[in-house]
């Protein structure tokens, strides 16, 4: 019964062990579903289920009929136009990261958006090129296609033919990688494997994207300086590129460098203005569009290509090209890279979509997002695009300019379509260094994540370590190997957290039913002879030894060592008793020998197996109190512990290997007359122990209690009951005259007393 009294409550109930609670409150018989039951449910068909599947497979069918034309259409049109202009420029810029002609970036900004419009569940993200994915695809392209120098020795046609042939190979590789990544995403979505994204923590993604920003920065230096830099894809490639750039620094094209630096400064300044005054600005200043128009006009008007020999976008063929046939050999060579691209692309898109779904309170489906992303990449790759996800800056533009639904995404795709089929030629004079500067202008958010390190260190040192190691792995090993190493390291930290948990000793705080770490509070209550030990992690084969060692450190002694010492001492006492050197008197026992000692040889021959057995004093007419001075040269360490409580409320599982270790620990304590109680476990935990035949005559299922307080009250009641069986005067007399040693011709010397209790 619970009685509330103001801001306090009084609970009146029995002290419950797990068995007692089970007797008072019978559990219901529940049917646990088997795999066959789940399969039957999955294969069951009804009109309602078919409707649900249709709406989940095509989310547009659920939100489009409810579209508010008068309230949302104008906002979506304005947002779509703004987002489309940004998508055009980012598509051109990020194509340089893939090392393919810029025009193909428009395909990556068009096809995935159309597919996502029908299949996606988020209303606010802008699907399209993402710099991290572009870098990952570009690394594969560089590895599988010949460099310019190799092409010069292979082809015998003109340089223009050589360039076009190399570009064609790069486009095919990029498209093939995109298609395979899309297939992986699609299969994962169909198989309902969207949960895999949980293995990419926020710290890992943050560290990885920051490292990718460093790769993007270094990769764009060759366009800003207009240098010929050989491609590198192996570990330490970033440092090799830097070495190549600075070794040719004297060949820098000053016009490209000045143009890119000016644009970079302008973009950073205006983006900062947009951020600081976003509440006052009706829409963000479209600085990318403004500088692109100005830079294109200046380059065309002053003929930069001829006068300063700058690198420009060049010919942009209007319309779409024929779909490609993926290369089977490329599939085989890039399966590992494509899996990483698929996971990273989905993780980024899902994390951004989750932010907006929480902000605007609508659901998103991770598995359906995988299907949408996969289908978009398959379709886009087939038409010579490269891998798409979402860009945080582009999605921010779509949301901040009033976008309500994916109608805004459809409008942005129409803007990209207009550029592809009609006005793309206007961008032909645009310098590649301008695109490089625009690509770097989108990295500010990624690079600013360096400030996260201090915040992470304050919150969780493990998360900070994951961030730092992910950044180092991705920078040093490259994005592909770096991602694999980062995931492995992150999983390793989970092992470390569970293998080396922060165990603690608990004490009662406030004389209530609350038990906290005894080191954190000054006013605590600890029942005499009772220790409470908490394990905050699962117990399994890898940490059972650590758990045992922490428990030994906490209580201050090794139970097995005490057990062996006591068995050796018992062997000596038994010999004294058999030889008649211990005499029973009404007042106690008298030892009639001046000294007694086993030979060293006899002690050394004691078998370990015998010493590890439970202490058996049934053949003796008395019981031994081991916590006082024993006769003669018998020395046994004293312990001030009679009950040990193990708080397993945070132990989620226990494997078979650790069960054997746990049972050994319990047996060692029980054999030295220390009662052990386990609290806080659920019924499944106890049922598993029962199935594995954990309990026996020594370790019984009665050791389980519902809470720490139940166990403590049980111990106190048990102690009061055991002491009440003896008369207080008898106890005092026993303490004074239990045992007296005769060391001088039958004279009693009361200075040496042995605590041996007579059996009644």
From TrEMBL:
Source species, domain of life: Eukaryota
PROSITE patterns the UniProt entry points to: SLC26A (PS01130), STAS (PS50801)
A Pfam family annotated for this UniProt entry: STAS
Entry's Gene Ontology cellular component terms: membrane
The keyword Mitochondrion is assigned to this record: no
Localization (cell): Membrane
GO molecular function, one term: secondary active sulfate transmembrane transporter activity
CDD domains hit by this protein: STAS_SulP_like_sulfate_transporter (cd07042)
Membrane topology: Multi-pass membrane protein
Transmembrane segments: 77-98, 104-121, 171-191, 197-218, 254-271, 338-358, 407-427, 465-496
Primary residence: membrane
Keywords: Membrane, Transmembrane, Transmembrane helix, Transport
Location of the STAS domain: 520-715
Entry protein name: Chloride anion exchanger isoform X2
Organism from which the protein derives: Bos indicus (Zebu)
Taxonomic lineage from the root: Eukaryota, Metazoa, Chordata, Craniata, Vertebrata
